[in-house]
Structures
1.
Amino acid sequence: MADANLLPEEIILEILKRLPAKSLLRFRCVCKSWSSLITSPNFIISCINRNNTSQNNTYILLRIYSETHKKEIYTLHCDNPTIDLHTHLDFPFTSFNPYFRIVGSCNGLICLADTLYTHKNDIVLWNPSIRKFLSLPEPSIRYDKAWVFMSVLGFGFDSRKNDYKVVRIAGDGSKIVPPRVEVYELGSGAWRVIDAVVPPYEMHHCWLQTNLNGIVHWLAFNPCQMGGFQSLIVAFDASDEVFREIMLPPSLGSENLLNLSLTVYGDSLALCHYSQGTQHRRACSIWVMKEYGVATWFEIFTIDLQQGVGLALRFLKNGEVVLATGEGELVSYNPNERQVKSLGIFGSSHPLILHTGSFYVDTYVESLVLLDSLRL
Amino acid sequence: MASAPENEKNASAPEKKTLTLKSMINNEEFVVDEHVALQSVTIKNMVDSDCAGDVIPVPTISGEILALVIEYCKNHANPSASEDDLKKADAGIVAKDIYTLIDLVLAANFLDIKGLLEVTSQKIADSIKDLPHQDVREIFGVENDYTPEEEAAVRAEHDWAFEGFP
């Protein structure tokens, strides 16, 4: 009945941008014009915009280290209270360390690094939805002598240029020579040293970054402060390529960084503060910066569990928190009912790994990023 | 106080204008309240620019499809319908075979009804996502312009995505 051959391209586009990545890869074979549409940068970004705004297309990315299999396992879960398993992701890498450090993830692209305890600089961008990855070239700033050199990584998105950027802060660890900064741009495929001035604070290479709206955030402290800590957040805006400082709530400004972590609450940056709760277990208070850049923080609730709180990892859409308990189990916590739900997932008990260290939980959208850039 | 009687007057004697939409495929006519029909940006532009006569001819859309479009517009013009009601009603409208859906998406595009375009596109996407690409080609009436070698090369780039497919 339908003379469908007459479907205008704008309708084809409306339909295609609603398809899962796997279907789109197959439908490249329909005809040449479908293939060039699907692999075009404009189409790829319009799918991302749609998935980010549509309620049903966000997933939870989970990484655990399996003691039995001696390897890291990546899975996608539904963003529902029981975080039901959606897909097992095929992980194509092997690492020097027991598992990769996840620098960050953005629009379906995951940045992995295996730079700890090794002079290799293995940094990979991985898109599991289309099973493509890209190994980054060797960074240009090098300190060949030292074991003590510091190298901090961040992964952000330049929304103006529509490009993904890995930022690397590298210093010789001497505190005499200020560290230098370089940026890898997916679009150009190369590292570029930039002039940005790094705030004079220490960001430990192991501490996780948190990505919000493409901006990278690290917890940091001022090493020159005498008598206690001076802690704060250092942010790197991937569009402007400048660093900014964000103050913590005044009551937490001198807190030890081991008692702090960052995450995202809705569209806001959230700070998790760990302190001793009842029954001598670690409790966690959640603070939210409601208006970005205006460092006014609001404490929204405290999680005080019998099992203790190891690490608050990620908020679900319904407001529940996925967290690792003090016993290394992954649970979801409902702050209104103060109820804990076991997710039946346990962290590693590897001696080199903190209970909570191998967990990574982030929101995730499918995307076709890397499908076009691989044809360079 | 002065505005109260005015409101009452409006409520008791609402101006109920109607429009007649006529399918040019099978000459079927539909009499529709104006505010229902105005959800179509195309019709609204015609009415606004005084191009609309008593009967608005709708080319290339059959009566069967036009009836679905009008059902959609009626549902969405009802101010007391909840979001849940609308979702259910939308699902009913697009519970059709793929060829009807393609006609419907073309109609939604021609009449410029954004919500209907989105809900129909989503349903088409859901219906084709697990189909082999050969079937999709046929449904959309697309001519295969690949040589067998070219097609095999594109396929080989993502072999894993074709597991279980011809």
2.
Amino acid sequence: MSNITEMDALTLGREIASGNIKVREATESYLSSVKSKDEQYNCYVTVDEEGAMKAADEVQARIDKGGLKGSPLAGVPVAIKDNMCTEGLLTTCSSKILYNFVPTYESTAVAKLRDAGAVILGKTNMDEFAMGSTTETSYFGPTRNPANPEHVPGGSSGGSAAAVAAGECVYALGSDTGGSIRQPASYCGVVGIKPTYGTVSRYGLIAYGSSLDQIGPLTRNVSDAAAVLTAISGHDERDSTSVNKPVVDYTKSLVKDVKDIKIGIPRDYFGEGLDPEVAAAVRGAADVLKNAGASVEEFDLSLVNYAIPAYYTIAAAEASSNLERFDGIKYGYRTEEYAGLHNMYKKSRSEGFGAEVKRRIMLGSFVLSSGYYDAYYLKALKVKALIKKAFDDAFSKYDIILGPVAPTTAPKLGESLSDPIKMYLGDIYTISVNLAGLPGISVPCGTDSDGLPIGVQLLADCFNEEKLFRTAYTYESEK
Amino acid sequence: MANIISDETIEYVGILAKLELSDEEKEAAKSDMGRMLDYIDMLGELDTDDVEPMSHAFPVQNVFREDVVTGTDIRDQILKNAPEEKDGMFVVPKTFD
Amino acid sequence: MSDYETVIGLEVHVELATKTKIFCGCSTEFGGDPNTHTCPVCTGMPGSLPVLNRQVLEYAIAVGLATNCDITRYCKFDRKNYFYPDNPQNYQISQLYLPICRNGHVDIRTESGVEKAVRIHEIHMEEDAGKLIHDDWLDASLVDYNRSGVPLIEIVSEPDMRSAEEVIAYLEKLRMTISYLGASDCKLQEGSMRADVNLSVRKVGETEFGTRTEMKNLNSFKAIARAIAGETERQIDLIESGEKVVQETRRWDDDKECSYAMRSKEDAQDYRYFPDPDLVPISVSEELLDEIRSREPEFREAKIVRYAEEFGLPEKDILLITENKHLADVFEETVACGAPAKKVSNWLMVETMRLLKENNLDPEDIRFSPKNLASLIKLTEDRTVNSTVAKEVFEEMFKSDCDPAKYVEEHGLATQNDEGALRETIQKVIADNPQSVDDYHNGKEKAIGFLVGQTMKAMQGKCDPGSVNKILKELL
């Protein structure tokens, strides 16, 4: 079959289940796609050809023995963001400091995928330690946007988004701390969902901002996203912040019906800085849903501008502590020459971390330091509470909040990194979602005049993924 | 710029964070951090006197494990990625005088 | 010197007696080759996450209740950030903002009879660090994370103590309370109880505190007493010579009997505490408190009073038996089996202590059951065995917890109650030892002792010396 690399995950899964396509055949198709394209896009840090072929044969054997019946993703090749630990497979966080780190344990999300019969092709490129919005801060070089290789794929899950868009995998896992799934999904023209905090176990996810990080899928369509999220979510005893709720089959929400859905559009999202083409595409998406029967109105969300400073304070503080363990003692990079313990620490870390990571570690260490904790960190946690309350108020009136994912389409390579604050401003629509722990999905809603993809973002209240999928599916079907 | 970051502050944060910056990086860090703090100072516009700080976005409490041994000897795995090891231990620059 | 007073507060770390570490399922067992009790969590591997051991919380609350603390009903863990190789994450999970217990006190009584309350500022839960070993060959240090993540509570007192004697009374009180709760064995020498001494001096009558120093590495009561004396002198000397005491952490070297500052320009002492986002808050319910309260044992003070009233034991016995809760439990259970209290006490104080000492064991290691001890006492009481045989049986019981009656039976150790056989033996002894018989008749009372001995020997010890004596006198 020639069109394997164009199939979505559920279609390919069905073909494999019915025996029309062998897992080996599907895996080989994707590996050859990676071979022909990845030199150009650099989606992968590690391609695990051998492991993938071995997994393909094992999954095929399970299927042939009548196993994996209830698993729609069995045999479907997937790519994993390189900040999730994979047993026996290099896991770098796209950082020099972990350039040689091979975990001896598996992250829970990846283990769940393996149980479901997934074939892991390799590990995708990202901004170093997920700090960035362009995938340009990777130690292994930037990933390019398949829609236009002059442009970035977004970030930090840029490798995952680009790999899905380029047909170098059927779907991928990413992680989202301030928009790192939704924004690259939008830039690359794929679907990306950040579930409610606590839905997917963080065990094995190398932490950036622990109170904000969530793993989620990047897929070709809404149906795949629902299937993948169903496979990776669920309570995990090893993650204290994992919510103990029964697993939901999100594919049951793939229904074209929004007649009971009340959609609110934050007026504040359409102010200064939003590209008019993006604004038009997003309003167009709202119209589609309105025509499908949803009620749509504008409202004032408030506090939108305060989310970025609150987020960067909290994320940097947590990151400064989370990244202390990279010290050249237990794993990863150790500097060649040093004079004593503290010099070894300083040189290993200074040589091992890139500029953006160091910038955030410095900021985070400062805001937690003696005399500044209350003024910065505690203040940010209070603002977080206010932002959460603003969303609570909004969700007492609306089922779904609709808006843009990012102010613009994907910028050109090299345009963003020079001014950090300008770069951080690009996160304005995605960041508050992480502060409030909400689920958010990015669905393609058009392209700009240069042909670059635009995404629309839908948000729901915590644990209302079902409404999110139903609305997103309806939009995708009706557009 | 309201927040002026001194050389001493950058030096001090470098000690806390175990980062050694080149002179060039130090200058960049001073300016970046000053600008970021100016930006963060915007939070001061909000009255948060009666607001409880929020660590987790929703209330999960009392997550425990039972006191049952589940660990086994996996020393070889634990040491597998060590830059230097000896006698089943990690080697570090000496910590005793 | 005498116009100064020493002001002391203590930070006491106690290793809790859980089976597993505070945040992972690794064993806390001592010994074991380096790093064989480790996992991704307690070695700070990327992506690993902590989950709190319920038993740690319950022990911490139990100690808090027993030391009259308020239990914090909504508490959290914080990260204490500092780089050191024994700390694999380079932060220690501890509690700063909302510790589990606050505002407690314990009543102490010193050797010389001073009675006072020492207030407890707070008790918090935290994880222990790994161990660093110096390697001469490499001129480097080696890290073993077996102890990393072992649960600790840190008990922080107010600066309420004024002498080494008070400090030792306070530590003894904590040790007794915590070991009675079963929350720790509290051994100073083995490091399961560690005390850091915060000390300052001031002129008598002054109300302000002086600048304090913190002293670490105190492994025995003697070292603590010496360190307090040494540091008091050092601080007074500084003040008298017009210098200032610097607030710092000092390490006590008990061999050289002096302390030295543990300063380094790389130690900023700025721990950047913040709530650990990987752990969720703990809400302590009234039910949990009630449950823990209901499990609280009778403490030593109460036992001392009750043993005097109920058993009429001498004070010496009571103090020894109640020194250890397990020993007291064995005592009480043996008495409950019907054995006379003083007899039980004697067995525990003499033979048990001797065997524990000889075998380098603790009272916790006692293996014989109270039922068997009671049964042995019964055998001696009804003269089935004499005291020499009883000791032999006890030694076996101490080793293997054998049933004494069965053991006596199987080994034919019971006293011969067949008077005919005994008379026959005695007659033979008299016949074989004419000299002693003569001596006896010549008024040498001692000679009868020799004849008793000979009889016992001939009977292989299986007879009651009292009966032998009686029959001998009769036949002579």
3.
Amino acid sequence: MSTENPVLKVDSLVVETDSKDPKQILKGISFEIQPGETLCLVGESGSGKSVSSLTTMGLLPQGALRAAGGRILLDGEDLLQASPKRISELRGSRMAMIFQEPMTALNPVLTVGRQLDEVLACHTSEPANKRRERVLDALEQVHLPDIERMYDSYPHQLSGGQRQRIMIAMALLLKPKLLIADEPTTALDVTTQHQILKLIRELQEKHGTAVLFITHDMGVVADIAHRVCVMHFGVIVEQGEVKQILSNPQKQYTRDLLSAVPSLTPREARALRGPRLVLDVAELVKEYAPPRSLLSWFKKPKAGTKAVNNISFKLYEGRTLGIVGESGSGKSTLARCVMRLIDPTDGVIRVDGQQISGLTAVGLKPHRHRIQMIFQDPYRSLNPRRTVGDSLIEGPMNYGAQREAALGRAAELLQLVGLPADAIDRFPHQFSGGQRQRIAIARALAMEPDVIVADEAVSALDVSVQAQVLALLDDIQERLGIAVLFITHDLRVAAQICDDVLVMQRGKVVEYGPASDVLGNPSAEYTRQLIEVAPGRSWDFANFSPAS
Amino acid sequence: MHAQTVSTEMPASRGIHKLMSKVFRVRPKTATIIAATILLLIVLMAIFAPMIATHDPVELSPANRLQGMSAEHLLGTDAYGRDLFSRVVYGAQVSLTVGLGVAFLCVLIGLPLGLLTGYFRTLDAILMRFMDGLMAIPGILAAIAIVSLTSANLWTLMVAIMVPEIPQIVRLVRSQVLATREEAFVEAAVLMGTPTRTILWRHLMPNTFAPLIVQCTYICAAAILTEATLSFLGVGLSSETPTWGNIMSEGRIYFQLNPSMILWAGLLLSLCILSVNLLGDAARDALDPKMKRREG
């Protein structure tokens, strides 16, 4: 294989911070990609995988990072020596990139067609009608419906998946030899992700494009890669054929990374801990009224949008109920209704027998502490200006605890979530994402709740950290008997932590039952589809073997 | 003399440099250092005016009216024979008092209003329309109207200048609150049963400080200018109290006889406003969250 001419050859590339005492971000990495091959750079955050792609495209942030050594050969031409003008010529024509966030990668004030046309206008001298033909052809190739209308659409009129298709069409317009895809499906739902991965693969086979695919998701790797480079702290730990890496990893880091990927096979439901029904939600509805204007006085009233439509479930002490769904399914709205952060339109919420729906802010206060929340983004859920200790004792002190006693309890809780006792005097920015999520858990526990609502609580974390936080939640639940309402889009996580699962689609319940039934033997078509498109379904990562 | 000023200024500016790198955590630009030095000198001049001034600034001396520069009267005398140099020195007191006073009063009133309108949507709908109304009136006209209706003392003057500036503060604080109240840590506080006043005080207010400081410097500069304008138009403080505005107003008829009549007051006013604005820019650069993120 290596006898062929590689499209991209990166040779002991060093990238460091552009400052007085430079810190190495990439410590001499080497890899190459053959025509028609997909190479996955996989690693956790901070491993340097994105920096590698940005260096190749000549897009390193000026004044912050610079390439300090090595070579990047695109078709034998060293990109690090090339002039900015030459790099700009090569971008688009010989190499192209698609980004993680399709919302921000397109200019919102220009039509999609204009933006695609611009690429051709910059790089070719074809007449306008010829260019239009080529753009329409490109839109056709990425399987967009109604391409004439798409041509004249603005980005906001398209869905996330459609936008990512446009980005791919744009990247492939000039038939580049190298396509760099930096987490192109991370912001998308699994169904859309599945389609986009299929599309990239199809176009690759058609045009023989080499793809450098950057991802943190081992499932995606298993689905799309030919070869894999595992990165860790700016070093390539291991590289090889995808089969070999997944089935017989040589390095401990790779083994740990693969073992941390949660399995899709649901765990055995635990025995019922007690008969106490701690959260009872019945026929909950949240309807958003349609926008009103003066004219609407004269028109027929429009129906509102039901973000949560008639949802009922029961949660017993010590159990975990997973609410699973794609974006827009209403799972977060449901959580916020249950927490009474927003007021439900209709329905009943009972926490440990006490009805909390319909209570006023004052009436609600004595019951607030029984149900607590862990948020998705650990960087935004702690006030950056307050010490960890202050954040932890805020709640208990609101309910009349003495400062000294509350601080003592906070120290215990920090120990419980696996943080050193001296963390109490430090500020959130001194902690990593995973540690902050532990602090957030400790903060929720400080209120001695009956129920914890975890809204995508591990989605922003790396898979190894994710595994640790999930284990911690499990352990705490075991010890304290707290019930958890776990909201996630990730079926793998749901399979590992939930006793029961409720699948939502467009505000409605699709399926509700024990996890082993819902995920192991789904009865609803939608659930089956969700499981089918989960990335890496065919591989059992923890056991380094194909899934049975 | 020239060499002397240079040699005395060097260590001072180095000291300021150090202090400012501590305060702002970034290396200040040269322009910032110069601005800070100028402003410091003007502040010192205002504080030590009784020692610096050579004469009583209000002492009339009709025999010595409209004299040119001399050793006795460094900048000459005005139409009533008052010493111009002393008047210019004392003028700094009024300008700085008005500038700082208005900025302080604006925050005192605007910050709570902004916090409340940002958090309570019903209040927001009512109060912000009132603020829109206030903003629709040209600031200087409103100030003239308020001063004309009352007697022109320092307090009414400050209130008159402050009123048109308040909506700016309210809008700024409100926008910060609107953005911050969506943050998860504020929702977490709600869930922990933290009372609303504590949420406002503890979680929302500190986040408004950085843009507030920047806005204050601009308001301070604008207030100094408005005060001078009002005095120049003759609706400010009575001409007995020396201000840079009324010095220029009285001097404008005679400035062909003696340019010092308006030159120095005007120059100091310009320098003062320029310095405050430059410091505001520096504060904005230093307090910008993006800069901070890059720092650490």
